[in-house]
Amino acid sequence: MTAFSSAFLDNVTTILIVVPITVAMVKGLGYSPFPFVLAEIMLSNIGGALTLVGDPPNVLVGTAVGITFNSFLVHMSIPILSTIFFTLLAFYLVRWRDLKPIHHHLPRLLLSNVLLKKLEYQYQSRRLSVAYIVKAVAILVLTTLGFLLQFALHLPIAVVALTGAFTLMLVVHKKIHVEHVFSKIEWGTLGVFVGLFVVVAGLEHTGVLRALAEQIVQLTDNFNVLLLLILWSVGMFSMIINNIPFVTVMIPILMTVSDHYVGHPHAGLLWWALIMGAALGGNGTMIGASANVIGVDLARKEGVNITFFSYLKYSFPLTILSLVICSIYLLIWSLYF
To answer: At what angle do helices 290-301 and 34-48 cross, to 10 degrees?
Structure first.
């Protein structure tokens, strides 16, 4: 559900919705939320690569090159669905002890029932008017449509999101106070992003990112080797720096490289290598993507402690696996189609 929601919603939006629900529900069923939350964070990034509107780098490349929504589905469905399958399989095989039924474990059953009763009391005690729910859902749907129709509206995603937020605030201000909403904002997480974006912007403006990108594409004249170089280098850099500025720098460089392969039947694969590396590489570390930082922070507030190294222990090998799957896909497409 997380993966396919992220294909049409922003990854962060999906994580904000599913992580708190998952933690409450999984605790109530007597299981550890750790593997569930970790899998959701990773699958939100993987699912976001499936469509043109699923991830900001997809939008950047699609706009620059003129890739259509349907073309995204055709080229990305096989590697992304394969990555989703193997990621879920890996989590199941590694954490299978945490996923076994608990009907023979009486202490866990007792705790599970207590937590379920707490959830039942917590949520059933709330009374929401039908009019309030209809207004909130209508604004959410309109905001989502705004994301999907971003190109027709000629508005940045941030403008669409803030418009929806302020509209909802105006509509429901009598029931929810603005101060209460602002107190729920993840200010600490926003501070992390501010610092990270400043560092990355510094690397971009000093020419470090451009120099790295140019060195990557000049390493070989072999088309298939170049494909893999782009995929893996972008994937590795996306683990430690935000992929949006790096993709922005890579686009004009790849356009120049594409001019050297004008007659090549698979020159377009260079762009798919860039998209796959940027989307999947962000899973590698806890700071590799916005959804990672926010998902971990939300889980921590719900009592689920995910450290940098506990995240890395699962994320790094699974990211390598996803890049291997994409490498095989790109080479098969380049050599046999």
So the answer is: 160
